[in-house]
Every structure is written in structure tokens, then in C-alpha cells.
What does this fold into?
Amino acid sequence: MAEIVLKTTRINKSFGGVKVLKDVSIALEAGKIYGFIGLNGAGKTTLLNILMGLIKSDSGEVLLFNQSDKKELSENRKRIGSMIESPAIYPDMSAYENVNMVRISRGLPNKELVHRALEAVGLADMGKKKAKNFSLGMRQRLGIAKALVSEPDILILDEPNNGLDPMSIVELRETLLRINREKKVTMLISSHLLDELHQLVTEYIIINEGKIIETISQAELQERSQRHIALKVKEPSLAAAMIEQHLKTTNYQVMPDHSIKLFDYVDDLNRVLTCLVDHNIELRSLTIAEDNLTDYFVQTVRGDLQ
It folds into this structure.
């Protein structure tokens, strides 16, 4: 049975009378990389701050390593490394000095932790070069090194690719995959670069308007994103019945936005079209499609808003 290292149950949070989080429940399994995706203002950063104990929820429960007691939570948060929003960096200090400051503030006696953290993100050979002279990608990696200095079991990153050029994004992805592979660190990564997340994560958590609308694995997404006929009709239920009765297949899905994905007959479009016309199904569009994560996210959110 998979080990759950972090779990929330019905977390709620309001600011100024506006409910930002609504009964948010998630569960992270050890060793997996989770992509946390949602529109701006969906509540992602608020939840991450609650997980780190930076703000309090109005109600609900956070469990870390099966502990929810206030004292135990505080202790277990030492096993989490985080970079929420922009990394806090001392510009006139070197990479080593920046990470060492975190080590000292956390009361970690082993100086070797600093070198290991810098090595993990490819910054071990920066010498005395000051952080203010780093590229944006190097600063992001330095922020992650600071999160790694305590050798955490969980790593929480909020928009780690912000402002990075394509090469820096690739380097950061390779760094995170290596850390996950070698150190078995569970990761929760919030990002709006969905196609990049697709190359990194094993699970997706989709949040919209403060509530979790779906948790889906990479494998499930790939299964749902295979090549298909995309149908939009006036009455989806009638079209679904026609597909089963006359096309003799149940290999289709009615999506949250009420479109239909038909996975059979992709190479026999005329048969599908003829069948729809013969049975008076009012057709609005019919195309061959293959979704990516962005397509799936947009469809899911639109369905939630309807």
C-alpha cells in the first residue's frame, strides 16, 4: 500500500469575506511528482502557504506523515523544503553563503549539507561569485538548493519556471527529475507552464475557484488524450445513445464541456457523419483531435464553470 506523506481534509480559507479555498482535500504518495495546476487566483499559493504553516486555514486538517497535532506538524514541517513565489536570495553573498545561512537558521550542524544541496542543482562550482551576478535560471536553482539543504522528504515549489528561458527550463526539469530519482523526494509543483509539467510529473491536481475538481495520473491523461473524433452536438445524451446502438461501441467519453470523444472510427469519419445525419443528431462540429495537457485542463475547467 502506498505511503501517504501529506494529506489535507476539507481545508477552507477566506480573505475579506471571499472564500479562496473550499473543502480542499488532497493526498500525496511518497516518491511521486505532483503538478498543481489552476488559473491565476484559483487558490494554489494559498494552499501551499497553509501546508508550510505560513498562514492558518479557517477549518479543515493538514496531516504530515500521519500527524496532525500542532506540535507534531511543526516538527514534521522541518522535513519539507519549499520555494514559494520568488526565492529569497542575498544578492551580495555567494551560492555557498546563501545556502549556509539557511543551514544555520535551521540549526543543522553538518556543513556538508550545503555542498550536497549545491551539487544537486549544479551550483557546487560557483566559488565566490555573488548571487546578484547569477542568471535568472541560476537564481531559481539556488532557491531550490536552499529548499534542499535540510535534505527534505517533500519539496514544494511554486512557479519554479517563472521568467526562465527555454534552456534554463530544461536544466531545471532535469535537476528535479534527478533529485526525485536519486533521493526519492516527493514533490508538489505549482506551474502555469502545462506542457513543461507534462514532461515532469506523475500526477496532476487541478484546482478551480478554490476547489479541487480532479486528480488524474499521467497514465490516465495519456489514455484520455489519444487520437479521437471530437464531436460537438446539440444533445450529447442522444448522440451517446446513437453511438452505442448504431456504431456498436462504448469506446467514447462525454467530457465536462459536453463534447464527445469517440476513440473508434478515427479512420472512417464518413461512417460517423452519415450515422449522425441519418439519426437526426444536430452536429455543431466534428474533427480529428489529439489532446495535450493544456487542452485537457481547459476542457475540465470549462466544464466545471458550466
Remarks:
- The two ends are 37 Å apart (CA to CA).
- The first helix runs from residue 44 to 51.
- The first strand starts at residue 4 and ends at 15.
- The CA atoms of residues 238 and 281 lie 7 Å apart.
